[in-house]
Design brief:
This protein has 437 residues and is α/β, with parallel strands linked by helices. It has helices at 21-32, 96-131, 133-137, 149-161, 182-198, 207-213, 217-220, 261-272, 290-298, 314-323, 343-351, 367-375, 386-405, 416-420, 424-436, and strands spanning 4-8, 36-42, 61-65, 141-146, 166-171, 201-204, 222-224, 245-250, 281-286, 306-308, 326-332, 355-360, 378-382.
Length: 437
């Protein structure tokens, strides 16, 4: 007998965010497996990406709550011819310490508004459930997908009103990370502990996240289900490879916490040795943090190699990745924040191109590094083993540059069994197993 499943995810197609991919694909593949899937999400607003709209053919019922956590800013107006302005004397620049305090205050206010907005969203969801209680109590399982906090707050409301429904709380990220502000840390930690106590099953997307989020009794009802990819999203054989000696990075840089500097350092050193001509190097960037990247490249005299492609929709990103010679992944692995497993990593694996992984932080042997080495997916560099890894990265780039000069493709022979284990079909099967327990 088919199960009735409710997925609660604030981020869902067509919202233009990487956080929408996992719940959207989960809804699609659970439905294709024969389950009856309904979805609760926010009414679409802001910047949208319609590349995954096909999922709506698979959803039985869609509940859209018109209660954004924070209204996104309207697009900037089109540029106009500047008008002459009277001379204005600038106020003295604030001292660095004052600038830092202002930045922290703005961040505190922003995080407070997000948590408050999440509570309002959950309150609207509670009204929705109460208005049709018999229907909501008839679900076999509910899956809430964090973040933001709104999704799991709705899970708590659902469990309180419909205690007989199995609740699976899916954590794509921990609720509390190093960047979490002091004022919201306590409230977020309290919510996370409530979720871990009340949910029937708990899921994390990496072993490191599992260790960080779940402890005690919560650990006993938890498991790891990695993110995945969907080969149907792109026709890989139809994508013509870019013939340039290029590197591609797609996504956020978190104010420089994701650091491309080791790669720039290697390219700069090879240029200084007269091996590589930087005019032949192309570094593609797709995202909204180009100035951060430019600052990193400028230190090594490579800013002219950057190509700012701006913010692309998902279909464009997938084609860019599949056409690239090298895909650059940046993440971190720290004592207080390990197990970071970027969703973009899975798209890179699907693209079938060599991955250059750059891991900052002082803890060696990150989860990303272990997967890349096990799957023969490319080359890895970690700050924790910088001396050896920098030479390894340099030799890798040098070898591939010589291949490129000879008109040869990169050496790349991934382990298909590792690659296929990250298919979203496998992700959906794992969730089905949890529901059937």
């Amino acid at each position: 007998m088919n199960k009735r499943i409710l997925i609660i995810s604030y981020n869902f197609a067509p919202r233009h965010t990487v956080g929408a991919i996992r719940p959207t694909k989960l809804a699609q593949y659970l439905s294709e497996a024969g389950e009856k899937v309904d979805v609760v999400t926010v009414k679409p607003f802001g910047e949208l990406d319609h590349s995954m709209d096909g999922v709506f053919e698979h959803i039985d019922r869609l509940y859209e709550i018109d209660c954004p956590i924070i209204k996104e800013k309207a697009p900037a107006p089109a540029a106009t011819k500047p008008q002459a302005k009277p001379e204005v004397r600038s106020a003295p620049a604030p001292a660095p310490r004052m600038k830092g305090l202002v930045k922290k205050l703005k961040r505190e206010i922003y995080e407070y508004r997000r948590v408050s907005g999440s509570r309002r969203f959950a309150a609207e969801f509670k009204k929705l459930v109460k208005s049709d209680l018999d229907n909501f109590r008839s679900y076999d399982a509910v899956i809430s997908s964090y973040g933001p906090v709104a999704s799991h707050l709705c899970g708590l409301e659902m469990k309180a009103l419909c205690p007989g429904v199995k609740w699976i709380a899916d954590f794509r990220d921990p609720m509390v990370v190093n960047a979490t502000t002091r004022l919201t840390r306590r409230s977020r930690l309290k919510i996370q502990r409530r979720v871990c106590k009340k949910a029937d099953r708990l899921v994390a997307v990496s072993e490191g996240y599992s260790d960080k989020i779940f402890e005690g009794e919560a650990k006993n009802k938890s498991c790891v289900i990695y993110n995945g990819f969907d080969r149907r999203d792109i026709d890989l054989p139809s994508v013509s490879p870019d013939k340039s000696f290029n590197f591609t990075y797609v996504g956020a840089l978190y104010d420089g916490k994701r650091d491309i500097s080791p790669l720039f350092a290697v390219l700069s050193r090879l240029e200084a040795e007269g091996i590589i001509e930087k005019e032949k190097v192309r570094f593609n960037y797709a995202g909204s943090a180009f100035e951060v990247l430019r600052g990193q490249a400028k230190k090594y005299g490579l800013a002219d190699c950057l190509y700012d492609l701006g913010r692309l929709d998902r279909d464009q990103c997938l084609k860019l990745q599949a056409a690239s010679r090298h895909l650059v992944l940046a993440t971190w692995n720290e004592e207080k924040e390990g197990g970071v497993f970027p969703g973009k990593f899975l798209e890179y694996i699907m693209a079938g191109r060599p991955i250059i992984s750059l891991v900052s932080g002082n803890v060696p042997s990150s989860e990303v590094t272990r997967v890349i080495e096990r799957g023969r997916l490319g080359v890895t560099y970690e700050d924790a083993t910088a001396e050896d890894d920098l030479n390894k990265l340099k030799n890798y780039v040098l070898h591939d540059y010589l291949l490129w000069l000879g008109g040869e493709p990169p050496e790349f022979d991934p382990d298909e069994s590792v690659v296929s284990s990250f298919d979203f079909r496998e992700t959906a099967k794992r969730f089905e197993e949890l529901i059937a327990e």
